[in-house]
Records
---
Amino acid sequence: MKLSISLILFLIFSKNIFSFSQANSQGNLIVIPSGEVLASWISPLNPKFTLQQVSSQKSKKDKRENKNKNESIKKVKVKSFRIMPKAVTIKEFKYFLEKNPQWKKENISKLYADESYLELLSDELKIKEEAPMTAVSWYAARAYCENFGMRLPTTLEWEYVGAASEKIADANKDETFLKRILEWYGEPRTNNFKPVGSIYKNLYGVWDMHGLVWEWVEDFNSTFVTGESREDSSLNKNMFCGASALSGADKENYASFMRFAFRSALKGTSSVWNLGFRCAKDL
Amino acid sequence: MVKNQNNDNENKGEHMKMKVEIHKIQRIQYILTILCCFLLVPFYVKANVSVNVNVKNSVSLYENKSEWQTQESDILKLEKFKGSYVVIGMIYTNCAYACPLTISKLQEIEKNFKIEKIQNYKFLLATFDTKKDKPEHLKKYLIEKGLDSKIWTFLYSAKESVVRELSVLLGISYQDLGDGDFNHSNVLTLLDPFGHVIYRIDNYNTDLKQFAEMIKKDLSVSGNKK
């Protein structure tokens, strides 16, 4: 009797130890409930408008928006999914590299990583193991997630989780929250990253969606943020096939615009010092 | 007697000293020759590495080993197209605006190839649409457009992650609008017979003759087949 109890207890604990030894990547995913969001979350700017044109055409747009109020604001469904509570740490990624040496800096092809790849793993920098893993390319981040049967979150999923403050699910209209985010974005560079799980925990129990590092998403190349362009119409016809535009609302959310602008400047090989990631998984 | 012994000892001492000196000198010489050999090594190493002129400093797209299905339902990897100049892009058949434009731009490029007597080329078009553009559908499209299947190959994958990966490799932005349509940028990439990118356009408002020009340029520096 005692033996069977202790055996069962042992199995339970060993499972925890096992998942711990996999450096916490598989266990403890948080379930995010399904919901509905504004389509502008995944397409904050219509490619036909730059920031400058947006402000000058505001009066025209307002008239049009009032006319077709129901039509212009599209909504998108978010299916329930699971996400890692914290960004992948240096310790976790190092473990992955040991088991998958083809992703080490000396073995990686230039097709999958640029010169800055893994630059923060250099011993001289002495960055703590619990800091978020950064300077990883999109391909490497994906490979990490795939290795544990997971994937990168989509932009929609990431923004959905990122919209939550400590108390409410959609804090995109909460000025204090937006102000905090912009303050974080304004902080100067430092190699001394705070450890994961140190900035703030949101309503779902997910840590540091803002304020620690930027994060990779699966479809980072799915938004079209054109730069300064005055001859807009011809340029766009030739550059983009845009059958429809999922956009309209929320141009006041400058923080989200910054994220979109940042993402649209990335390439798959980009290994940026403050760009990390976390993984997601279907239910 | 003692004096002689002393002399002998002295001689021996000097002998020993001389031996030590000689050994020292020999050792120094030995070390110097080894060092000189190291100096020569870079020359040898260089000579061995840069023999093949065709090996460029860039990477080959064919390092990617994802699997695709052609319009004939053949399963292959992109490296299957090694040996020809390849123009690769992405479309979807349900596309009303830019995709027919893509086809016509490629046909323009083909016309120019014929004028410049370039024969060793292929056109690859991968689809964004994992749901609708299955191989049978792509085959219909190819026949509808009157395209030569010896030159044109359409590629399908059921996995969105594979399609997304190719778009990232080629630097093509795209968004699934969920209603069967896709927003996407217009990019055409030219690969040499080894899969290295030698030219790329990201909008169609450009001189398409450059494709033939870049092939001619590449031919003149390498020994590739025209």
Note: Strands of chain B lie at 67-70, 75-77, 85-91, 121-127, 152-156, 174-176, 182-185, 188-191, 197-201.
---
Amino acid sequence: MNDDPRIPAIDGDPALPRGGETLISGASVAAEERAYLAEHALKKPLRVLDIWALGVGVVITGEYFGWNSALKDNGPVAVLVASLVVCLLYLTWVLALSELSVAMPFAGGPLAYGRRAVGPALGFLMGWSMFLECQFATIATALATGGYIAFLVNPENPSNAVIVAAALVTVLIFFLLQVWGVKEQSTAMVFMTYGAILGLVIFWCLASTNFRWDRIWTNPLLPPDKGWRAVLDAVPFALWWLVIIETVALAAEEAHEPHRTIPRGLVWAQLTLIALVGLTWLFACGAVEDWQSLAVAPDGSPISYPLAKVVAGAPASRSPAAVYGFGVIAIFGMIASYHGMIYGTSRQAFALGRSGYLPTFLGSVHAERRTPGPALALCSLITAGFIIANLWFPKAIELALLVSTLTALIWYVLAMWCLFVLRRREPELFSKYRAPLVVVLPVSVVVLSVFAAWMYGGSNTQVLPVTAGLYVLGFGYYLCWSRFRIQTAAPEELTARLKL
Amino acid sequence: MKSEDGIHSPRPILVRLLEAAASTVLLAVLVSLGWMIIASYRPEWGRLASLETEVAAIVGLMLLALVLVSAVALLHTRK
């Protein structure tokens, strides 16, 4: 029995986790398992505003960069249709995810769903997928932060060395903030999210001074040589508008009353983001003469600062102060998302380490602050390594972005499989919260995800071998090493084993 | 809609109608994705009208689905 007052008590026993609404009874948990849980427990301070801010903040970088690559050879109307498909995918996804997340409110998220529905192999596969999704999103966002800073330093010719240096500083600052404490970093996230939204509002106002409808509703609407194929080609990049909102599901273990805070916070975050997507697409595409210039630089490299480029060309921002002012606020968008993404990456690494699927040192938490320091350190080091590699591989940002979205789609489909299995086998698990549109909703998530994933095969084949290699690496480690060393006292394992 | 003890209570007819409409439109969106794939790879097959009409119809359908699913989601998490 753990008497540590820092660990919130659940039904009288501070060490025991919850599985849905049912608590694991003390009688069924060995003393050493209870001690392990107490040693690896997280605090639970997060409320609806924190969840909303985490959801919006972690995704909002998608409004600042990444989606613009979808414009290349496709045009604004194709991007609009692809974006609407993506908005629908994510709206249905967050509703279905809320059901799983409330039923199994653990930092492991997908690891817990797969472990309980099918077994350890699927649990690892899903956990590894989300780890890759968050890790590569973190890399892309750190590089984009560097891109915006380099644009501020030299708008004519942003230097790759400045991009790398600024990205590395971002990694270091947010490693320290995350290690500091979960409530402290959550408060910072709320303010950064407000700053990121303010940055977009300023962007809309500045871009509106250069807006013309005929730049959006083009003639012809879709490129004549591609037709509807342009919409399909735009989908993988349009996913970046909203990918990674599922990080919020990992916060369920740190949420107060997750059955209320998670669905409400997630839905409001998603609706906020859909509004931001629509307005950003409208003003960005309507304010530039040549939408192709928002996607690629003259040297062929992808543009990581499209909104700054739009602002620089708007009549209202003739003075350098407007461009620099927007650029500084835009950095809020980048760092808010980086902050949320490193949270997601570290929590997934922490959960995989705590359960023994990855090296167990990743599952340790700081004795006082209860933050997963080793997981944060490893994820930050991996990000820093890829940032440095960008010096020799300038297209790293595009590759990171596509690996992130593809691995996300893989586990969305697997998560819906888990939802169907668990609803049939353990309906009581979902007694606290059940998503609306019971069957159509998860079916829509599966069809929309498969539709989006299929688009990679046609137009982005370079990402497939990299992603396949990462899965071989992870699954090889699981098969040869970690499946013999799974920690039975981890919450994800305990609830799956006891079926409570 | 559920009561506090987790037992499902009867939902108002308006909510049920809204959910039925959202389900129907979502299914129509899924069908439209299939049509989009056909129109991409076999442009000569299954064309409905002019490109402008097709784009307007698809955008309208997607927006309607977004509005209906959003309304259902908000009603569902209101409590």
Note: Helices of chain B lie at 13-41, 51-76.
